[in-house]
Each structure stands twice: as C-alpha cells, then as structure tokens.
C-alpha cells in the first residue's frame, strides 16, 4: 500500500533548469510535509490526492497559511479519559494488539468522535493531522514493544503544539485538491507536472500507517475495505511489475507543463531493471509531448540495495 | 580576519577529505584503514569549528559502527557508515558560523539555511564520488527524524535508510556525552533516558534499543 518513496524536493529542483519553474502540479501528491520545501521557496502548488484521508493532511499542513490549533479547542477536544470505554462500542476493537493497545484504542475512538464535533474546518483538519502523527509514533514503538514517551492525551497535545513549527504562510498560493483522478482538470496549469510514482506493494496491514489512518478516518476497523478504497482511488496510476500504469490518462493531465518529472524509490531490484521496466516505457509513452529526457539514479542504502530515481522529461 | 582563515582552512580540509575518501573507496578493504585514520584526524578540524572539546565525529563514527554491527549491517555498509559519520557536518562550513552559535532562537530564514547544510555536504561528496555510492545519501539524511519532521526531506520512519537512522542516534549520543559551555557531559544513563524519551519521535525505537543494549542497559 504505502510503498517506499523518498520524495526529495531539492533534488527535483536541482535537476530542472534554474528560473524555469514557478509552479508544480502533483496529481498524486506525496505526504504533505515533504512539500514544505517547495512552498518555502515560493512555488505555486497544486497538490491533489484522490484519497480523502490524505487530502485532508494536504489541507491541514500545506494549504493552511499559518493557522494553528486554538488553546480553547485543545482544552475542549483533547481531554484525559478517566474511565475505559466499553470495547464493544469501539469500531476499532479488531486492532487490539495489532498494533494498538486497549488505552490507545479508547483514545482513537474518542478522538474521532471529538474531531467530528469541531465546527471550524481548518481546526478539524489540524486535529485529524495530529492523530495521524500520534498513530505514526505508536506504530513505530509497537515494533519494539517500547512504551510511548507520553500518555495519549499528552502526546496528542504535543503533536498539536508542534504544528506551530510546521505550518506557515507561503508567498504563493497552495491548492490542496481532493479530486478523483479521472476528473482532475486538464486546466491546471503549472510549469512542472510531477508524479511521485507509487509501486504496488502489499505489506503487513497492521504496520501500514496510511491504511490504518484511512480506516480510522472512515470510522471502521476493516483494513481490507480501506485498502480497496485506496486502490480504487488510485486505479491506473500505480506502477506494477507485471503491468504499466495508464500512460495516456496521465499524459492527458500534463496541460502545458514544460517538464514532466517522475520520481520513485526501489529496493532489492537492480537499477537496470527499474530503467527497463519503469523509466523506458514512461519515456516512450511521453515522447510525443516530451521528446528529451534524463534519468537520474542515486544510491540510498547499499545494505538493502535501495536506489532513488528521477526521470526528467522536457517538452519539445 | 580570523574567521576568514578558519573558513579557508575548513574548505581546504573538505577538499582534502573528499579526495582521501575517493582513494579510500578504490581500496574498499582493510588496506584503506590508514586513510580512514587520516580522515578521522581531518574531521577533528570540523569538530573544533563546532566547538567540541573532543573529537565528536570520530566518537560518532565509533558509536555508529558499534550500533551497525549490533543491528547486523554488513561490512561495506559499516564502512559507509564510518565515512559518513566522519564528514556528516561538512556542509556547515559553507554557512555563516554565527548561525550555529546564535544564543537565541533562529528566524524562519535562518532555519531554512540550517536545513541546507546536509544538502551542501551531500553535494560536495556527490561531485567527488561515483554516482552510486551511498555515503552522500547518509550525509543528506542524518538530520531526518523518525516522525517525519526532520530535514531536508522530512522522510518518515523506514523511508530513512537504516544507516542514516543509526547516524542520527550516534550523533545525538556522542554530542550528549561531551561537555558543552551550557551543560556538563551527560552519563550513559542520562543519555539512555533522553534517547528513550525521543524513541518513536526523533529516533528509530529499534536503534535506541540497540544503543541501550550496547551501553549495558
């Protein structure tokens, strides 16, 4: 699901001619915070995600022009639970021990209910985003059995407080979009069409942050259903080893972009195979509009044979 | 004037370090160890500029190697880890010294500059190294945080390659073990407590666990 992707914005900009990039269109955006670099540099951004639970993170952390979670809302919606909530009431009960403990499940239930009570949309998005970060922390710790550094409400408060260091006002507009890929407007005009390519991969669902967060956001513990929803939203845009993505569909979204950039990461497979199976077909499919291209490859970890790839194609 | 001389010395040192590293890569065996020792000596120049009383980079390299061994990394990766530790902050020499010694909080612009130092370090190494060496990548990502709020790329959890996660813990532990003008050196127990507080936030919990086990916890 959430396959490995090391999105490196400075590397992408280094690979493009200086002075020719003022805006970037991402039909399938990476995690919101990885785009801060572009925002800080004053690029106009159009970041779309067809998956609602991910699009809200783009709104909360990227499109947000500096609003943080208010102290009033913090007091009101991040309370300490004094009594356990009956497990039968909890829609996430099947996650007990995989990977969350009972107390964490109580808070996940309470926070979801609390989030729905927050009237202001940006405040609500910030609250959802903080839960994402709390879940990330808990999942990481569950791998080792270490106890969390803070009680759940304290950790939540910490994450909300930390958003003050993350969200900031940019000098150019940032648009967080939540549109199905088929409906994504070809009218979005940007100098770069940038696709962080997701390679199909099915890991252990209880360790998959994206999957767990999406299921939680939807209000049910069924990870199979959550996975199906995410896959359906991305249909045709995922790279598989046994089949290419829908290149013509992608090409229809490039608008008048001067550059089309595809970036991905991979391990266990030699870089040559990435070039043959991923880069070359992309080059051929995009050649009518973008006849010249360069593939950049960098080693990330020799222990696991991980490499990062950047295919930069220029309009003819 | 003194500042200019320090800058000049550091730039000469970085060029020399990079050249030495290139030679070391060609050897890739135990024969390279004298060069590694040389690199270690040169890295202490950077440490002096950072205000460390004892060689920080060399301590960090030893910490990182021990952690890497405990976590089962293979020899070639351990070599990359040692080398990356020795030159991890090389990018700082291109930035104003005052930035790293400013007593008060940094402005947003100053923070942006600080966040570029792993990129500058990486760039210098990439210009000198074969394209598929992993050492520049480790230098790039040694300030990434497990929770995705690090820099420069805000990688999250296992997106950060394990050797870079090891470097982050080794860097913090080695820094805490040294006295600084504003605090005394911390004991192994205090370091373990602090790393434990940051496990799952700043650091990979597995690497923290390895550090604690390594130091008799």
Automatic annotation (TrEMBL), chain A:
Domain of life: Bacteria
Protein name per its UniProtKB record: Uncharacterized protein
Origin species: Candidatus Ozemobacter sibiricus
Automatic annotation (TrEMBL), chain B:
Every HD-GYP domain range: 31-217
Annotated transmembrane regions: 6-22
Assigned keywords, A-Z: Membrane, Transmembrane, Transmembrane helix
PANTHER family from the UniProt entry: CYCLIC DI-GMP PHOSPHODIESTERASE TM_0186-RELATED, LIPOPROTEIN
The protein's name in its UniProt record: GAF domain/HD domain protein
Lineage of the organism: Bacteria, Candidatus Ozemobacteria, Candidatus Ozemobacterales, Candidatus Ozemobacteraceae, Candidatus Ozemobacter
């Amino acid at each position: 699901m959430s396959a490995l992707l090391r999105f490196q914005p400075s590397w992408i900009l280094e690979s493009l001619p200086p002075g020719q990039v003022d805006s970037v269109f991402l039909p399938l955006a990476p995690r919101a915070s990885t785009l801060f670099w572009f925002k800080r540099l004053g690029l106009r951004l159009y970041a779309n995600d067809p998956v609602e639970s991910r699009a809200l993170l783009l709104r909360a952390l990227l499109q947000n022009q500096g609003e943080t979670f208010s102290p009033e809302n913090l007091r009101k919606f991040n309370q300490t639970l004094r009594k356990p909530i009956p497990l039968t009431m909890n829609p996430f009960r099947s996650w007990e021990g995989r990977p969350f403990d009972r107390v964490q499940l109580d808070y996940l239930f309470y926070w979801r209910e609390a989030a729905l009570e927050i009237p202001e949309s940006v405040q609500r998005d910030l609250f959802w985003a903080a839960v994402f970060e709390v879940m990330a922390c808990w999942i990481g710790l569950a791998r080792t059995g270490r106890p969390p550094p803070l009680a759940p409400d304290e950790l939540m408060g910490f994450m909300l407080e930390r958003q003050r260091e993350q969200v900031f006002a940019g000098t150019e507009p940032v648009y967080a979009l939540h549109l199905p890929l088929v409906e994504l407007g070809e009218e979005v005009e940007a100098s770069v069409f940038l696709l962080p390519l997701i390679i199909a991969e099915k890991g252990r669902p209880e360790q998959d942050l994206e999957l767990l967060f999406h299921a939680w956001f939807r209000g049910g513990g069924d990870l199979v259903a959550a996975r199906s929803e995410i896959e359906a939203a991305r249909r045709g845009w995922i790279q598989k080893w046994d089949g290419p993505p829908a290149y013509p569909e992608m090409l229809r979204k490039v608008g008048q972009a001067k550059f089309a950039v595809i970036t991905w990461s991979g391990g266990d497979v030699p870089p040559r195979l990435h070039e043959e199976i991923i880069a070359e077909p992309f080059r051929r499919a995009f050649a009518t509009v973008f006849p010249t291209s360069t593939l950049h490859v960098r080693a990330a970890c020799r222990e696991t044979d991980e490499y990062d790839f950047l295919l930069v194609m220029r309009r003819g | 004037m003194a500042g200019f001389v320090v800058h000049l010395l550091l730039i000469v040192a970085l060029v020399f370090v990079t050249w030495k590293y290139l030679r070391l890569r060609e050897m890739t065996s135990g024969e390279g160890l004298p060069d590694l020792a040389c690199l270690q000596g040169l890295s202490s120049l950077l440490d002096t500029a950072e205000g460390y009383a004892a060689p920080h980079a060399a301590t960090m390299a030893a910490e990182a190697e021990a952690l890497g061994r405990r976590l089962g990394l293979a020899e070639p990766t351990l070599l990359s880890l040692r080398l990356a530790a020795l030159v991890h902050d090389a990018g700082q020499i291109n930035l104003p010294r005052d930035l790293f010694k400013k007593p008060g909080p940094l402005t947003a612009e100053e923070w942006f500059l600080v966040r570029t130092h792993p990129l500058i370090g990486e760039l210098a190494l990439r210009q000198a190294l074969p394209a598929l060496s992993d050492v520049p990548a480790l230098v790039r990502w040694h300030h990434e945080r497990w929770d995705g709020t690090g820099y420069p790329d805000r990688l999250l959890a296992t997106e950060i390659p394990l050797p870079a996660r090891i470097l982050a813990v080794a860097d913090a532990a080695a820094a805490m073990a040294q006295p600084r003008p504003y605090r005394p050196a911390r004991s192994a127990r205090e370091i373990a407590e602090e790393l434990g507080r940051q496990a799952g936030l700043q650091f990979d919990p597995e690497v923290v666990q390895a550090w604690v086990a390594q130091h008799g916890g």
